[in-house]
Specification:
By secondary structure, the chain is mainly beta. The protein has two helices and 23 strands. The radius of gyration is 19 Å and the shape is globular. The protein starts with a strand and ends with a helix.
């Protein structure tokens, strides 16, 4: 298991790297990553061992933690797609619009949900226009949202400006563009005691119709754990477990807030991450037991989960870590 980032600087030290700088600069005092028991990946000098260029490449464990700004470009503050993640289906982009600003979403072979994180916007496709009332922040309330089908183009415009998540999944069926009203979002109180949290199932498999995409929001009170007990969904076992790639996108309430995210191997050579996360950071889960997600006392933690996979049936079936089932009873 390795930490995926060095210790964060204190307030009197230089600020964390911007999106134009390398997102992981080990210092001279940083512990070296232990070697893995699996064979090393071939180097660039061994082209005859490389898989085809079209095959997604699974990132190394230290790349599964994506600090704020690491994937930023001229249009997005966060841009994670299958090529960056080394998988085939799940995507997440975040755009920030100045007052009066616009963004054009070209859906391509993916379906998308436009989800306001902060602020309101209008979403226009060739045939539809949706006014999203949005919200003040992700900690304030659930929000309305818009579904944009594959092979469509949509313009996102915000009169007052704001921040908007674009959750996507490569899909096959082209469903109609639709509006998701905030009052119809199911909100689940999951867990109890120090594992209590709220789950906003706005695009869960049984709440909103998509072809492949599954997306939910989780709000964890300060000092609590969520995504606990650890669970996985990295293999297809009919009726028991579904194969889903997952992205965690984090925001932490209050200044200097942070949390922790754990991903542990479910197989030899599997994903192994322990990341300190702050607002705007993301963690990729291509496989493995994920959880707990730990919120700093006094700072509520929010994360957006985006999932999709190759299965013919869109479903969220998980397997709890056997070492934690007896003591926790699963989600309770």
């Amino acid at each position: 298991m390795t930490h995926t980032e060095p210790q964060r600087p204190s307030r009197t030290e230089p600020q964390r790297p911007s999106g134009t700088e390398p997102h992981h600069r080990p210092s001279a005092t940083e512990p070296q990553r232990p070697s893995r028991t699996e064979p090393q990946r071939p180097s660039a000098t061994e082209p005859h061992h490389r898989p085809p260029a079209t095959e997604p490449q699974r990132p190394a464990d230290h790349d599964l933690y994506v600090p704020r700004g690491a994937t930023a470009d001229a249009q997005h503050v966060l841009d994670i797609g299958p090529e960056r993640a080394g998988w085939t289906h799940s995507s997440l982009r975040v755009v920030e619009l100045a007052p009066g600003g616009t963004h054009t979403l070209t859906a391509g072979d993916s379906e998308w949900i436009v989800l306001p994180l902060e602020g309101a916007c209008t979403v226009r496709t060739a045939d539809e226009e949706f006014q999203l009332l949005g919200r003040e922040s992700v900690f304030a309330a659930v929000t309305d949202f818009a579904y944009v089908p594959r092979d469509a183009r949509a313009q996102i415009a915000s009169g007052a400006g704001g921040r908007f998540a674009l959750a996507g999944a490569k899909c096959e069926r082209r469903l109609p563009a639709r509006y998701g009203p905030a009052p119809e979002v199911p909100v689940e109180e999951r867990g109890s005691g120090t594992c209590a949290r709220l789950v906003r199932n706005f695009a869960s498999a049984d709440a909103f119709d998509c072809d492949k995409l599954i997306a939910v929001e989780v709000v964890t009170p300060g000092g609590n754990w969520s995504s606990y007990p650890p669970h996985k969904h990295d293999e297809h076992r009919p009726g028991e477990e579904s194969e889903l790639e997952e992205i965690y996108y984090f925001e932490i309430d209050g200044p200097n807030g942070f949390g922790y995210q754990r991903v542990s191997p479910s197989r030899a050579g599997g994903s192994d991450v322990l990341a300190e996360v702050r607002s705007g950071d993301a963690v990729l889960v291509p496989d493995g037991w994920h959880g707990p997600s730990i919120a700093q006392p006094g700072h509520t933690m929010y994360y957006l989960n985006v999932m999709a996979g190759p299965g013919g049936t869109r479903e969220w079936r998980i397997c709890f870590h056997p070492d934690h089932v007896e003591s926790t009873g699963g989600y309770r």
